[in-house]
Amino acid sequence: MRPGLAADPRAFREREERDALRIAVYCPHYEDAGGVREVVRRLTAGMAIRGHEVDVIARLPGGNGGPLPARDPSTGVPILRMRVVRAPYRGAGARAFRHFLHRFPAGAFRLVRGVRALAPDLIAAHCSKFHAPYVATLRAALGVPVAAHLHNGPQTADGPESLVLSRLLLRSARRVIAVSPAVADYARRVLPARAERVTTVPNGIDPAEFERVAPATRARPYVLGAGALAERKGFDVLIDAFAAAGTDLDLVLAGDGPEGAALAARAAARGVAERVQFLGHVDRVTVASLLRGAAIVAIPSRFEGHPLICLEAMLAGAPVVASDIPGLPADLRHGQTGLRVPGEDPAALAQALRELAEVPERARALGRAAREAARRLPSWDEVTTRVLDEYEAALADGRIRAIGRRR
Hints:
Layout: H1 3-6, H2 9-17, E1 22-26, H3 35-49, E2 53-59, E3 79-82, H4 94-118, E4 122-126, H5 132-142, E5 146-150, H6 163-172, E6 175-178, H7 181-190, E7 198-200, H8 207-211, E8 222-226, H9 235-245, E9 250-254, H10 260-269, E10 276-280, H11 284-293, E11 296-299, H12 308-315, E12 320-323, E13 339-341, H13 346-358, H14 360-374, H15 380-406
Parallel strand pairs: 1-2, 1-4, 2-3, 4-5, 5-6, 6-7, 8-9, 8-11, 9-10, 11-12, 12-13
């Protein structure tokens, strides 16, 4: 268990006050490094501490890797891995649709059989828009309530907007838990008839995680970009802006992904290859250390739901420059706790980087203000309590509906 969660006495008091639930957490992306996995780890760990029986159902990774652990090493929560394929979006092509239609029946059968054996009281589905057919099948086959956690709005890591899949997911859910007001608004627009089922529960913070690590020290001060090396994270824009800014800082990119080679080539083409370091995938302790040591943290994303990296950078006291997009925490206030710049605008991002690099006193002041603002955000313990409240409301609503049908 994570020390910060396990040591919170409020979790144990709540354990005595709530009836224990059996919760099946369907998170296809659990084996993928990123914010979704960290959110699910935090929530499932907090629920297990409270005495609930929690199992994670994840997509079985491809490839020929070694055996995978039966439990999450950091939380102790059991993991059931299933071979499933994501549903295609319009425009993906006939081949993608044929592949899905060929694989879906067997995958859905295995999934239902595996989850039925867990005998859950409730299914919590995370980041499952492109797995909505599986969620709908689980709901129909098992007859237990579904709580759908939305981590993004129209666009996700799996693909562009798909109203068909979004509506299927939302119709399957007794409760829809969005990570930010922007994502909640999106859900209400997609299915206005079920708007009352949508609520917002933001991601949480763990101050102790940053108190336990020392700031990273490197040969030169650096701008940090942390996250998947994927188009949605906008690191191509960051490299262009970094090259144009002309500062004395280095650029450190922590993460891996499909755009790694293209980003390295872009840095070479812009003449900054020697000052851009690619660290690859790094663990949570290293991320925290890098955040604490960064001169600037850049978040040039093209879209986000409620990015953990922004909350964590603020909590670490780092000066943050971020794309001004829906989903960013409202506590990141331009000119007060960080800088917001127009998305996909290398010139604006370069100006912000230059401004903070040339006036480090202002950068440090923004970082201090960001840390103070972040410390007022809800903890993971508080977030877990709010999520469990929504689960229990979903179960209560289901009991009321069952009584109504019997009458």
